[in-house]
Amino acid sequence: MQAIKLADGIHWVGANVHTEDLFEGIWPIPEGVALNAYTVQGDKTAVIELVREWGGAAMTFMKGLKALNIEPEDVDYIILNHLEPDHTGFTYMFRSIAPNATIVTTEKGEALVDGFYGITENVQTVATGDSLDLGQGKVLHFTEIPNVHWPETQVTYEQSSGILFSSDAFGSYGIHKGSIFDDEQPEAIKPYWEDQMLRYYANIVATFSSNVLSAIDKLSGVDIKMIAPSHGLIWRGSPGTVVKKYVRYANYSKELQEPEITIIWGSMYGNTETMLNAIIKGASEYDIPIHVHQVPNEDASFILRDVFKSAGLIIGCPTYEYGMFPPMKYVMELLNEKLMRFKKVGFFGSYGWSGGAKRDFDKISERMKWDIEEPLLFKGYPSNEEITKGEELGRSIAQKVKEIPSKIEGEDY
Ligand SMILES: Cc1cc2nc3c(=O)[nH]c(=O)nc-3n(C[C@H](O)[C@H](O)[C@H](O)COP(=O)(O)O)c2cc1C
Ligand SMILES: [Fe+2]
Ligand SMILES: [Fe+2]
């Protein structure tokens, strides 16, 4: 994909990245990720976001400029809305071939440009309310949206087109397939994007949901005709849809979650797994989605996606060296880190002699504002009575969760 027009004088010059690397060194991206970068041309030329030298992205970006007949030395401004290296890794090299380009970022961003790339010359700082006139009616307006998800984050609004370049806000995992625009997505690809967006949000943004809502509030008076994030779809047909989706996601951090259950389980020798099946059997009597993930076999990235939206959460694992089965401890720490609060929760697991998993569960869940059922702990292989209790635990959580109304409505695009 090369240089795709968004509006007169405004183009996408990003890249699809396919890689076995983990995003941020943690999160698998089997479907890749798009690094969206843009050009805005008036009398002056600005590039909004760069890319990282990753899976050929820097070369694709350069080809995009070439397709528009923009030579690096013609670039007057590099707008860096957010300094995370997935968008800025190419800064040092690009500035060396685009020596006339002024880097435009926030004051906090300026310190990161120095910290990451050692660049201090020709850096211009902007703040909320500032604008940059590129000529021919192209004017960029800047608004800081701190902590979505880095402290220096800003968005850039281009006045003549009404395009909001929103940085990571409204972003997504996943490469573009055929078209970068929401209004050109075939029906069959829409579930792919929902999945990629939700997992991106749960992994990258969830900790900052209150900042997301503040940012949306701050931008509520702006006449936005198109939303162009730094990853994922460009929302040309229905920018309101992605805003609604992000509001829904942000509310998953509060008490507004879906009537679904996610079960996370781990087992060394099958005893906890035996109880897992009893719990699923009980919960299945209610007609609600149940997502089941085994640790460590399944990556936490996918588990977070399902836990985040589910009002019900059931955790099952054995005791390991007087504490919780370590891969479960890791996942639970992430649930805490990502503020996955306000859930109906069950806990179960087998132990041999002392127990100890529950102590770790209690320690981590203390801050979670979870409504926790009586834990189901059993020695070795579960007895018939314990199996019955397991089925009851599954039923009890499912019953509570089923009463919650679904939040997914009216977001078609
Ligand atoms: C490496 C290892 C460490 C364990 N540490 C403890 C422990 O500290 N306290 C305890 O009560 N049981 C401990 N156990 C026993 C298990 O919790 C017990 O076998 C349990 O039934 C395993 O459940 P599972 O079949 O679901 O893996 C340990 C087992 C293993 C293999
Ligand atoms: Fe980022
Ligand atoms: Fe990013």
Question: Could you explain how this protein is built, in words?
Answer:
With 413 residues, this protein is an alpha/beta fold. It has 2 domains: 249 residues, 4-Layer Sandwich (Metallo-beta-lactamase, Chain A), CATH 3.60.15.10; 144 residues, Flavodoxin domain (Rossmann fold, 3-Layer(aba) Sandwich), CATH 3.40.50.360. It has 12 helices and 22 strands. The strands form 5 sheets. The protein has a 7-stranded mixed sheet. Helix 5 packs across helix 9, helix 6 packs antiparallel against helix 7 and helix 10 packs parallel to helix 11. The two termini are 23 Å apart. The model has no long low-confidence stretch (mean pLDDT 96). The site of flavin mononucleotide has 20 residues, from helix 8, strand 18 and strand 20.
Q: What's the short version?
A:
The chain is of the alpha/beta class and 413 residues long.
List descriptors:
binds flavin mononucleotide, Metallo-beta-lactamase, Chain A, 413 residues, Rossmann fold
**What is the domain tally?**
2
Looking at CATH, the homologous superfamily of the largest domain is: Ribonuclease Z/Hydroxyacylglutathione hydrolase-like
Extract low-pLDDT stretches: none
Number-wise, the strands total 22
Over the alpha carbons, how many angstroms does the gyration radius reach? 24 Å
Structural class: alpha/beta
How many helices? The count is 12
Strand content: 15-25%
**What is the approximate shape?**
elongated
Query: Mind telling me the CATH class of the largest domain?
Result: Alpha Beta
CATH topology of the largest domain: Metallo-beta-lactamase, Chain A
Give the CATH architecture of the largest domain. 4-Layer Sandwich
**How many strands, what sense, and barrel or not for the largest sheet?**
7 strands, mixed
